[in-house]
Design goal:
five-stranded mixed sheet, Nucleotidyltransferase, domain 5, single chain, alpha/beta
Length: about 180
């Protein structure tokens, strides 16, 4: 049975898109694990190995859409889009919820246990990081290349200093501000 693994990157970010990826392997790839447990260099190498050996779908939901419909709806829409594109026999996603999508099994820590979910984690993370680094030059005051939109002390300080830019999620309330 062909398994589709699904995972996301950017869920808790203060800026930039939510990126959800789905992967069905046609040929296995060695060395996979949760993207958060890999170096950036290792993620990049694995990304280039996954792409030619899998059917995959990567869905970007921009910050404005997240602000309009909410994070859960954005995740649900992304999962449905992936399942429609890949038409999997069985779908497993990382976490403890399926966001109400029928036919999806949620497994906690699946991104470190199941190769397809690990691969989805890597595709989502690398795709999102590349996008944010590309955008960094458009918003130099925010140093996105350093924190990738996550809520680091540096990022919060830069928001405090310069206010929000058009990449920021306005619906995310930051306690320190």
């Amino acid at each position: 049975m062909k398994i589709c693994g699904i995972d996301e990157a950017g869920r808790g970010c203060l800026a930039g898109p939510l990126v959800v990826a789905g992967v069905i392997f046609e040929k296995s790839v060695e060395g996979l694990r949760d993207s958060k447990k890999l170096t950036e260099k290792k993620r990049e190498v694995l990304f280039e190995k996954i792409i030619p050996n899998a059917k995959y779908e990567i869905v970007f939901t921009d910050n404005k859409t997240i602000d309009e419909i909410g994070l859960s709806a954005a995740l649900k829409n992304s999962i449905i889009q992936i399942m429609t594109a890949l038409n999997p026999e069985h779908t497993i996603m990382d976490g403890n919820t399926t966001f109400g999508v029928e036919g999806v099994e949620a497994i906690i820590k699946a991104d470190d246990k199941i190769d397809e979910v690990s691969a989805a984690s890597i595709l989502a993370k690398v795709s999102r990081d590349r996008y944010i680094v590309e955008q960094a030059s458009n918003f130099p005051l925010y140093q996105f290349e350093k924190h990738k939109g996550y809520g680091t002390a540096l990022h919060r300080e830069l928001i405090k200093e310069h206010g929000y830019c058009e990449l920021h999620r306005r619906s995310f309330k930051i306690k320190s501000l």
